[in-house]
Amino acid sequence: MTDSKEASNKAYWSANLRLIVFCLIIWATVSYGFGMLLRPWLMNIHIGGADMGFWFAQQGSIFTFLILIFFYAWRMNKLDKKFGLEE
Amino acid sequence: MSQFMINMIFVAGSFVIYTWIAIWARAKSTREFYIAGGEVHPVFNGMATAADWLSAASFISVAGLISVGYVNSSFILGWTGGYVLLATLLAPYLRRFGKYTVPDFVGSRYDSTTARLVAVVMLIIISLTYVIGQMTGAGVAFARFLEVSSTVGLIISAVVVFFYAVLGGMKGVTYTQVAQYVVLILAFTIPAIYLSLQMTGHFLPQTGFVGQHLESGQPLLHKLNEVVRDLGFQDYTANVENKWNMFLFTLTLMVGTAGLPHVIIRFFTVPKISDARWSAGWALVFIALFYTTAPPLAAMARLNLIESIYPAGTEQAPIVYDERPEWFKTWEVTGLVKFEDLNNDGHVQFYNDKNVEFEQGTAADRGWAGNELTINNDILVLALPEIANMPSWMIGLMAAGGIAAALSTASGLLLAISSAVSHDLIKNTLFPQISDKTEMLCARISMVGAILIATWLGINPPGFAAQTVALAFGMAASSIFPVLMMGIFFKRINAKGAVAGMLFGSAFTLSYIFTYLGWFFIPGTNSFPNTPEFWVMGISPLSVGCIGALINFIVAISVSYMTEKPSAEIQRMVENVRYP
Fold first, then answer.
1. Which ipTM was obtained for this model?
2. Which residues are A46's β-sheet partners?
3. What is the count of structural domains for chain B?
């Protein structure tokens, strides 16, 4: 592997790791945060007939997970292109 | 036409479709048998993954489980959130690695037959526990809807699975799963839409859930809280004071989900890494259709059930037993609904007699002498079409849906087991010299063996079969997930670390579960009663998998740093997995 290739691979991998960490922070915030631990403080915010914590525990987190996975796929495919790593 | 005939037509019709697919999708090489040639479109793979994932237990029991209230949100979060871990931490890299099975990855990455064999053992424990529940689930669905004994139902299911799984391997399984997904999701969502329209006027159960209850004009969840409170139950949306266990249990289910071999191998079947990423998204789309419908269905079905026992409102007297509705009679026969007239007034009092304050107050004032109606949680889904007066074709559809859910998950699991036996045990460990053709024969024979064992265990379920959640998810979280993740993200982990990690992680998890649930699940052999005051740090045995995973990580990292570095070749292999 040439030096420049190695440097570019390193940059690609750390960009990927940053993206994963970002996704997992949101993943944890909506499910363990809003849906669970923070629920008592969100009782006054309502989503229709449900309080925000309850809604995130039973509906909102799933929608967020969906957005996260597609966002990750889209960003990674762009990264692949940028670093010339497409299959 | 009788209900039996309608059910028969739906179930037989779906079986004809599966068999037709089996003949069309015959596997011609091991590559087709193990990973469907690696040519499955990401959307189809998403559907197949969803069918793989949505089991008989999810179809029949999840709505009942969630209907207990907020505390069981763990199941919803756990069984969907694991896909974020899969999509970002495992699926694309495992696809890039280009192997056929999960132990195959472990064996090659750590360059160790021991690691491969340990992974095979873990895989078989996890998948076998899981598959027994599916086989009995299929039997139960048959027995309920087609008036045959559950043993006969189970054998019919085994024959159908035999057809497409032995002939088609992963290819046959994949395309039948696509068809099974369509059947099961229609069977689950149509009754939910029907109920949502009836109770809230919303077409989408997801919006009806947070909408108004038509009859009372109150928000649905407020109405439900009020009704259950009137009967001495805890509020539906009541908060949980101590969230420690809810947190750990959710984490265990998420990590366990990402570590289940039959789900992971689905991502080996798509053509490219980018497809594996998209496919995880599509899988969650199809799973989310189910899991965002389940909570509204649970809430509405529970309200609907109480309303049918208290037709004039919870303040008024409940129904008279002699005038009980048809569904009540139907399901009494199965024992899932039980009535005992404790105060001899002929009425069916249904309330929470475990609530001491309520028992001594309201219940005593109303002349109630204890709860008289015992309802199995599964009734919420099984009897839904009848309780909500749905047309009879919907019942037929439910029958086909329940069976589809059981068969699709069973076939995914059987494939995971048989490919680990034929590819990892026979081809890669015992007889490396066999040809592709012989290996394929071995794969088919292993599949036959797996089906026979699963059928036998389904008819004579051992004690541990009821412990799918504890055993399968706990083991997947504490053994498979960490070893895969470290294989990709930590170059320094060597074979010794991986093997030690898997063994310590799973041994810890198993011993903790056995301590409270009985050694090898033999009743009465538990060392401590399974109640919170005896749990170490308040950790329930069902939630311990994530702690086992942590132990796996710590042991694997410590052992690896104390022993030699992985060879340069292995390090290069890990590098290659990271870059498409």
1. 0.96
2. A51
3. 2
